[in-house]
Write a structure and sequence with these properties.
Blueprint: H1 10-21, H2 30-42, E1 48-52, H3 58-70, E2 75-78, H4 100-110, E3 116-119, H5 123-126, E4 134-139, H6 145-155, E5 159-167, H7 175-186, E6 191-197, E7 200-205, H8 214-224, H9 226-231, H10 239-250, H11 259-265
Parallel strand pairs: 1-2, 1-4, 2-3, 4-5
Antiparallel strand pairs: 5-7, 6-7
């Protein structure tokens, strides 16, 4: 595999992709979306881009637009579309409520329907028959510890070396993403460069030389691990606990990254 590079037109591609994605309801902010697009565009071409948790298609469209431009293959979008996660529960209006129609309408409006391999199912069901390599695993599904852990454990074995895993809402008051990121990724020498952008936690899979990045991961562990105890009971922090959480979170570096900055963090490829 050759060195990873930043496509010369990537900034313009990200602008166009975000213009389409920003019109779709969802929880992804611009600097997070641009990071997703950067990861998709700069990683090795071998392997699938897998999204767990699509909701109405905001991140799906962002990834699909980038994939469409660079000919990267379809985005595998996995979601039962039944508001089953803690984050989406408040959006459920009835027992049979579904985001699927809006999701497919948004893909069509963005002109990316043919770039998305839609899997309307639970990720735990999809992974039973999964056998393909993955270059980018984007986890934004069930934010409980059990849910996030199952998604990582199920799909991470298919990550190709130098691929990337990212978890959304790792710096919000959900128990799963931050605990899984700290315990299973930052504390493992199978992973290399790691970081946060806004509430996305990401890490490059480096099974052969992840130990080279141990110091960098340990530094992140020290500032991120105190959040685990504070969010263990789930969302809805109040009072002193909420204030302490905000203080602890403020110590976690999470600035937006331009493509060249993100690439420089990866070290030797």
């Amino acid at each position: 595999m050759g060195p990873l590079t930043v496509p010369p037109d990537l900034d313009e591609v990200l602008d166009e992709a975000w213009d389409a994605a920003s019109k779709i309801p969802g929880f992804l902010v611009e600097n997070e979306a641009r990071l997703l697009g950067t990861i998709a565009a700069c990683l090795p071409s071998t392997g699938a881009i897998v999204e767990i948790g699509s909701f109405k298609g905001k991140s799906t469209v962002m990834l699909a637009k980038v994939s469409q431009h660079y000919g990267l293959g379809p985005i595998v979008a996995i979601d039962p579309h039944n508001f089953n996660s803690e984050e989406l529960r408040e959006h459920r209006t009835s027992s049979d409520a579904s985001s699927f129609s809006e999701f497919t309408d948004n893909l069509k409006a963005a002109g990316v329907s043919e770039r998305v391999d839609v899997r309307r199912a639970l990720s735990t069901d999809v992974v039973r028959d999964w056998s393909s390599p993955i270059r980018f695993l984007w986890i934004d599904g069930n934010h409980s510890y059990r849910g996030a852990k199952a998604d990582l454990d199920g799909f991470a074995p298919y990550l190709v070396p130098h691929g990337v895993v990212a978890l959304h809402d790792a710096l919000h008051d959900f128990p799963g993403p931050i605990r899984v990121f700290v315990e299973d990724i930052l504390r493992s020498n199978r992973y290399g460069a790691s970081g946060f952008t806004n509430s996305i936690a990401w890490s490059q899979f480096r099974p052969d030389d992840g130990a080279l990045f141990e110091g960098q991961r340990q530094a992140l562990d020290r500032v991120a691990s105190p959040l685990i105890e504070l969010v263990k009971d789930g969302p809805g922090l109040t009072g002193i606990r909420k204030a302490w959480y905000k203080f602890r979170r403020s110590r976690v570096p999470r600035a937006a990254l331009r493509p060249a900055q993100w690439m420089s963090l990866l070290g030797s490829n």
